[in-house]
Amino acid sequence: MFPIAHKGTRGTVAVVNSVTLSQAILALHLVVIAFNVVGLVAIPVGAALGWRWVRIRWWRGLHLASWAAVAGQAAFGRACFLTLLQDELAGSAAQPPLIERWVESVIYWPLPIWVFLAIYLLLFAAVIALWWAVPIRRMTA
């Protein structure tokens, strides 16, 4: 664990340790996973229910790009860059709090990388298929 110093606007120095940053990366990772999974469900359900926001170009583009990053990393046999960063920051820290251990058990499964590759490529293909099944529409005022 290493401290990271940051000089504030009033000359004060705040020290953020690597465990705190590791926890922040874990929280960000959870948000990205939720965005990816919720998007897969929300797009077809939203199209069926007439939700206009599921056809917004920037939102759909961000969803596609996020899944492309996940599938691409798996295709190259790499772990997620957020996982690697979190591991590096956590280092050999003491036992994490219970909630963090629970969240990590939900996110990180002890499976071979090829299983993740198959899952991620299948889900990425589903996201691409959603571009045709639920087309983007121009939003009118």
What can you tell me about this protein's structure?
The radius of gyration is 19 Å and the shape is globular. The model has no long low-confidence stretch (mean pLDDT 82). It has a two-stranded antiparallel sheet. It starts with a strand and ends in an 8-residue tail after the last helix. The protein has 5 helices and 2 strands; from the N terminus they run E-E-H-H-H-H-H. The chain is mainly alpha-helical. It has one domain (18-133). Helix 1 runs antiparallel to helix 3 (81-90) and helix 1 crosses helix 4. It has helices at residues 18-49, 57-75, 81-90, 98-107, 113-133, and strands at 3-7, 13-17. 65% of the residues lie in helices and 7% in strands.
- What percentage of amino acids are in beta strands? 5-15%
Report the uncertain regions: none
| Cα end-to-end separation | 52 Å
- What share of the residues lie within helices? 55-70%
Number of self-contained structural domains: 1
- Tell me the structural class: mainly alpha
What coarse outline follows from CA principal-axis ratios? globular
User: How many H/I helices?
Assistant: 5
SSE order, one letter for each helix or strand: EEHHHHH
Biggest pleated-sheet summary: 2 strands, antiparallel
What is the gyration radius calculated from CA atoms?
19 Å
Arithmetic mean of pLDDT: 82
How many β-strand runs? Answer: 2
